[in-house]
Design a protein that fits this description.
By secondary structure, the chain is an alpha+beta fold. The protein has 15 helices and 23 strands. The strands form 6 sheets. Strands 21-22-1-23 form a 4-stranded mixed sheet, with helices on both faces. It has a 4-stranded mixed sheet with strand order 2-14-16-15. Strands 4-5-3-13 form a 4-stranded mixed sheet, covered by helices on one side. The mean pLDDT is about 95. The structure holds uridine-diphosphate-N-acetylglucosamine.
């Protein structure tokens, strides 16, 4: 099993290019099912999740051609079978996007039910509510979601809970439906807008994405497109926190600063200097990190996917902070690992009380999930000595060349596959 090994304690400095947004890519790849023509997608991050999604498209019968590392051409005209059974896909939450896309195009879908996951129970009732409103019959059989519709007809759907996945999925099921669909209490995340832009570039008629009411007028057919995915807001935020926690000076490039507002504001609050450019943000870490209170919220609130990284930063603050996780019910599991590095954090339900300490002590720790894994790497980079992070496959699900990008900023970090390699690294870095 691969591990990250790093010698922390040095400030990160320099510039880092941010990759395409993983969560946008997952929806957009599935969205290619909605046309028989070629879909050319650029800025696809080369990470485990998108690669699994592309493999699953092939399993379904689509032709997937990788033009270069971050560009793919997909043609789904040869998909005949709307049932998908892929073991990898079962482990991935975003497999639910196949339901909306297959239902929208083929009026049927059979897709493994996305499992619960380490960050908490993750129901899909709002997705199902939307599909049913459009006229689909949905049932669960042998762990699969089976969806069927004679015809799909637009309707008004008010989401009981703001859900990124349900909003995107209902958009995909509705673009080819008859008549008009209105999604109320829709999610407003940047990748909702990206998904709508992508579908509109194929001839869909979606208005209002980015607000909480999305209006979709069904069209008969979608055509091919060439589309470039937006930059990854969470990858950018992670590197901004890396600058802060190592007291470094990092410019994250190729981003949309507007998408970063909640993160930039918090970093300023804790004492960072944050300088915004047209498509970049420079973060200079403070000598003393000030405490702050945070509550995760749907966009434009503070993202739950940045909660572990900011909590890790606050663990080194000069006072007491409170972090409230309001989106997922079990997203503080990594705190036990931070405690092993000396952090003083108490978790009660969905609230973490974080008493700042002066420094982390290096340790061998284990990534419990994707974003928490990245946060533990940040902790390791701040700790003076050698830290090892196990289970890095989680991190590789969503960060393209994480260790390479960190090394380019001056971090001493590598991937090792054995104790021997780890010892060699330790000898080399002294
Ligand atoms: C997406 C992101 C994930 C991010 C999350 C919140 C993708 C592939 N993943 O996940 O990285 O952490 O948004 O920004 O884009 N809920 C229901 N019923 C539903 C759907 C959701 O109760 O049918 C609840 C969830 O349990 C959660 C909340 O709604 O408490 C938000 O979930 P949602 O926005 O749907 O998250 P995902 O789309 O799964």
């Amino acid at each position: 099993m691969s591990q990250y090994i790093m010698k922390g304690g040095l400030p990160l400095t320099g510039e880092v290019n941010i990759s395409g947004a993983k969560n946008a890519a997952l929806g957009i790849i599935a969205g290619a099912i909605l046309t028989d023509e070629d879909v050319h997608i650029d800025n696809v991050p080369d990470v485990r999740d998108t690669n699994i999604m592309l493999e699953a498209m092939k399993e379904l019968g689509a032709s997937v051609e990788r033009i270069d590392r971050n560009t793919v051409r997909i043609n789904t005209s040869s998909i005949r079978n709307a049932a998908i059974d892929d073991d990898y896909l079962r482990m991935m939450r975003a497999s639910y996007y196949f339901i909306g896309a297959l239902l929208g195009k083929h009026h049927e879908a059979e897709v493994p039910l996305p499992g619960g996951c380490v960050i908490g129970s993750r129901p899909i009732d709002q997705h199902v509510k939307g599909f049913r409103a459009l006229g689909a019959k949905i049932h669960i059989e042998n762990g699969n979601v089976i969806a069927k519709a004679d015809r799909l007809v637009g309707d008004e759907i008010y989401l009981d809970k703001v859900s990124v996945g349900a909003t995107i999925n209902i958009m995909m099921a509705a673009v080819l439906a008859e008549g008009r669909t209105i999604i109320g209490n829709a999610a407003k995340e940047p990748h909702i807008v990206d998904m709508a832009n992508f579908l509109n570039s194929m001839g869909a008629n979606i208005r209002g994405a980015g607000t909480d009411v999305i209006r979709i007028k069904g069209v008969n057919k979608l055509h091919g497109t060439e589309y470039s995915i937006i930059p990854d807001q969470i990858e950018a935020g992670t590197f901004m926190c890396a600058a802060a926690i190592t007291k470094g000076d990092v410019t994250v490039k190729n981003i949309i600063p507007k998408h970063m507002e909640s993160v930039s504001a918090k970093l300023e609050e804790v004492g960072c200097t944050v300088i915004e450019y047209d498509d970049a943000i420079r973060v200079i870490g403070p000598e003393v990190i000030k405490p702050a209170n945070i509550m995760t919220l749907p966009y434009p609130g503070f993202p739950t996917d940045m909660q572990p990284q900011i909590t890790t930063l606050l663990a080194l603050s000069s006072g007491t902070s409170m972090v409230v996780e309001s989106i997922f019910d079990s997203r503080f599991k990594y705190v036990d690992e931070l405690i092993r590095m000396g952090a003083d954090i108490r978790v009660e339900g969905n609230i973490a009380v974080v008493n700042g300490i002066n420094e982390f002590s290096p340790a061998q720790i284990t990534a419990p999930d994707l974003r928490a894994g990245a946060a533990l790497v940040l902790a390791g980079l701040a700790a003076d000595g050698i830290t090892i992070v196990n289970e890095i496959e989680f991190i590789q699900r969503g960060y393209e060349h994480f260790e390479k990008k960190l090394a380019e900023l001056g971090a001493t970090i590598d991937i090792v596959d054995s104790e021997r390699e780890a010892k060699k690294f330790a000898m080399k870095v002294g």
